[in-house]
């Protein structure tokens, strides 16, 4: 069972509706039926399984990731425990306070988030000693008995890269790049048309650009998220795309590089989508990808959306 | 002699006018007079000096910085040589291709820039091996015989912090914070009013905000530039300002921290000015600060401006 909530204005009402449906089903005992062994008789072992722990879900995912498990990874459990029974799964970019509250309303006690929970890459809770926001977030998670696992390194290591694949799918660009390579070609359009297409298909209000809006583009470099200046610049130097599309930059690195490159004759433009919205479609796509593996567990995508207002 | 070019639309014509005035003075031999020892007779040693090398200027500056010279610093010469004679000085945030060309037009062969020249913090030219943009920029600098020195760590180490002081001066907030502390109070206004004031006084087209525009603010934390999430968050935790004003953030650090903090009851809003425009007033103020020390050298501020268009 999967309802993917998008970044649109309808998500709140969809959520309420979903919550209502779920509550109604639960009241009628329908949900319970799904977990009674007899009902799923005839299914194979994995689909007939009665209950899953957080670790079971993680193991199912890691089976599909080349080279997993990794010796070093930030993809660890940030809250809750590996052996807790999963009542429902929420996928998102950031397990914000709002996403946690919505997960609790959905009776989903396992959040799979792409990015950190505690505001730094390794989720070190003592990164800023005595951080009261971290403490309050931990209390909220504990009160609602919610587990969080980060699915970052592994999802990018999946082939095709799960995040890029989700973005291409949402932007309707899979026909040009079905294996989710970082560089690919689309039919020639202007930079302005690409921007409008991305804003519309990825539900982005505003984005930042360096480039000539009327310039023709067909060669795209797509690096959602924050890959850092070194990778963003190295890819641009090597591939000379017409446009580099990223989630986030260090302004003194990639932005200044692109500004200077263009003043020196380069035709590469830069589109900065915003970190959260640039990778969210990859966590939305995760619902479809994971649901096939655990049909008995309800998986819901909740978009964490952009945190910013533009003034 | 100092003309400070601001981030306004008039800067191009001001530049042309300035260039014309300078050329006219030079043609008339007026500029040369300024460097004839006899004319400055009676001045003290430093003002009577005929010529300055790049190193002379750096030494004059470092005299004013507590603890200088530092053992470790990114404030090194990025182009040209320490012993080249200075024909004129340009101050800026980023020594972009455009700033370099304008400096050459002004016959200024020494650029003092706050931020990196070659797109990474240590200005390692092999950070991205074989970077053609770096090579072309080096060629342009070499052709025009322009020296660049970074003035970052030392300007922030000056008391008061030269960048923060310049921003406060430009925002007309020095009366509330003459020593350029990171946290200070202003008369109560709404967040919306602060935003409009900053946009107008610092010549910023658009900025990103997390917060309630109608909320009252008086306690300000001002950290222009990119101080990183750890410092931005630690300061916010400790000082609980009504608004944290920064140049640039890592979205997964400070932006998500502020978003969650507010959902947990915090009243701290976040304003992201943009890196270049957030610190530019500090490099504009440098003209006034440095000109008093070397009255014979023409010092001009050229704003590198925001690289972004918002769509």
Protein architecture, described:
Chain A is of the alpha/beta class. Helix content of chain A is 39%, strand content 16%. Chain A has twelve helices and twelve strands. In chain A, the strands form two sheets. A six-stranded mixed β-sheet of chain A has the order 1-11-3-4-5-2, sandwiched between helices. A five-stranded mixed β-sheet of chain A has the order 6-8-9-10-7. The radius of gyration of chain A is 21 Å and the shape is globular. At the A-B interface, α6, α9, β7, α10 and α11 of A face α6, α9, β7, α10 and α11 of B.
Give the topology, please.
The structure is a homodimer of 311-residue chains.
Chain A: E1 2-4, H1 11-27, H2 30-34, H3 45-48, H4 54-62, E2 77-79, E3 89-92, H5 97-105, E4 110-113, H6 132-143, E5 147-150, H7 153-157, H8 162-170, E6 183-190, H9 191-201, E7 208-210, E8 216-223, H10 229-239, E9 243-246, H11 251-263, E10 269-272, H12 275-291, E11 299-301, E12 309-310
Parallel strand pairs in A: 1-11, 3-4, 3-11, 4-5, 8-9, 9-10
Antiparallel strand pairs in A: 2-5, 6-8, 7-10
Helix pairs in contact in A: 8-12, 10-11
What would the keywords be for this entry?
homodimer, 311 residues, 5-stranded mixed β-sheet, 12 helices, globular
**Biggest chain-to-chain interface with counts:** A-B, 60 and 60 residues
Shape of chain A: globular
Summarize the helix and strand pattern of chain A as letters: EHHHHEEHEHEHHEHEEHEHEHEE
Structural class of chain A: alpha/beta
Helix content of chain A: 25-40%
Q: In which order are the strands of the major sheet of chain A placed? A: 1-11-3-4-5-2
**Residue-averaged pLDDT of chain A:** 88
Radius of gyration of chain A: 21 Å
- The protein's oligomeric status is homodimer
Poorly predicted residue ranges of chain A? 1-43
Please work out how many helical segments of chain A DSSP would assign: 12
Please state roughly what percent of the residues of chain A sit in beta strands, choosing from under 5%, 5-15%, 15-25%, 25-35%, 35-45% or over 45%.
15-25%
Strand tally of chain A:
12
- End-to-end C-alpha gap of chain A: 40 Å
Biggest sheet character of chain A: 6 strands, mixed
